[in-house]
Amino acid sequence: MMNNTVTEFILFGLTQDAKKQKVIFGVFLILYLLTLLWNLLVVVTIKTSVTLGSPMYFFLSYLSFADACFSTTTAPRLIVDTLSQKKTISYNECMTQLFAVHFFGGTEIFVLILMSFDRYVAICKPLQYNTIMSQRVCNMLVILAWVGSCIHSSAQIFLALQLPFCGPNVIDHYFCDVQPLMQLACMDIYVINLLVASNSGTVSTVSFIILLISYGVILYSLRNHSAEGRRKALSTCTTHFIVIVLFFGPCIFIYTRPQTTFPVDKMVSVFYTIGTPLLNPLIYTLRNAEVKNAMRKLWCSKI
């Protein structure tokens, strides 16, 4: 870690307007609670239902868990800071938040890739599906997703720790990330910027391309299926594709461009750190009859 004269940062937040902050507090508190409720509901439903034992739902439960954790890395501090006069965060807390954001964000990316692989095997190799996507294989794939996200977030925190801070210490954002921190570093950030873009930017862009190719192959293979089979497969793939676009669009916008900032950056970040984790379980449950039926059975039995 570099020697710093800065021991804490001040998070600027989304706005300094007192009236807008009260609105932000109410809106984001509701959104965060709904995110936790929906995602935990999906996890509990899948874990307790005997009808949702396929690998697709196994991966979906991990996606919902990652969504809940991903939102928790940023939303609570944003909500609390709207009520605080001085939105300070210590250096160590800032680095911890940065690591957590990239860890759970990376996990979400890798789990989405696993879900696309599962759909590829189910549609393109149906006779070998149970052999290829055995429980042991699924467990190993999830472990690889956790390891991959840990490597990605470790690289991010390593780069952030190379930045010396001599002041000012106001981060023009609502959470700690490498890009806004680089704006405060008292050094030439050209090399660090290239490394950050080659890490986060490459992970986001390459993953998005892999997902597009996989779903392209899936759609091409559907030409040999029956009309009913095509309809069901298209419904599932459409759901997955919506989630992919909603998540990767903002990530690619933020992490692949040169080191410049735009006023819209913070709102784009809100969308992928808070909005997408809320929308994911809604998209999957509203378009999936099996999940909805399992939820009804679970809660009817509890009542």
TrEMBL record:
Belongs to the G-protein coupled receptor 1 family. GO terms for molecular function: G protein-coupled receptor activity; olfactory receptor activity. InterPro entries: GPCR_Rhodpsn, GPCR_Rhodpsn_7TM, Olfact_rcpt, Olfactory_Receptors. It is a multi-pass membrane protein. Residues 38-284 form the G-protein coupled receptors family 1 profile domain. GO terms for cellular component: plasma membrane. It comes from the Eukaryota. Keywords: Cell membrane, G-protein coupled receptor, Membrane, Olfaction, Receptor, Sensory transduction, Transducer, Transmembrane, Transmembrane helix. It comes from Orycteropus afer afer. CDD domains: 7tmA_OR4A-like. This is Olfactory receptor. The chain crosses the membrane at residues 23-44, 56-79, 99-117, 137-159, 203-222, 234-255, 267-286.
